[in-house]
Amino acid sequence: MKLICGSGSEVYMVTATYIFNEEKVIAAGKTVEEMMAPIRKMLLENGAEEIAPGVFQKDGKDALVILDFPLMYIRKNLYYLQLLDEWTLDIGGHIENCKEELINYYREHGQSLE
User: Average of pLDDT values for 38-65?
Assistant: First the structure.
């Protein structure tokens, strides 16, 4: 599967990955499936494909935007950052650590993650 992302003739594969720390999730009184449910719902309803548990891909020019949809949900539910071991976005082999970037954003702006 190939994704056209960007300008010109650049062709990239775009993948979003969400991996939860099961021990932390259980300690928080949840299940991994409960934590994945809102992320999975918004991505699948917008045409993304779950190619492995917690790993999503989407074709088309809107793929990057759609794979970023969970960002707004996680920003409203910051406890997700404590329970995620990995939240990355892979754009043509360039991997962005979304979890660390969001944590750094809040730190740089003097905002609490609670």
Answer: 93
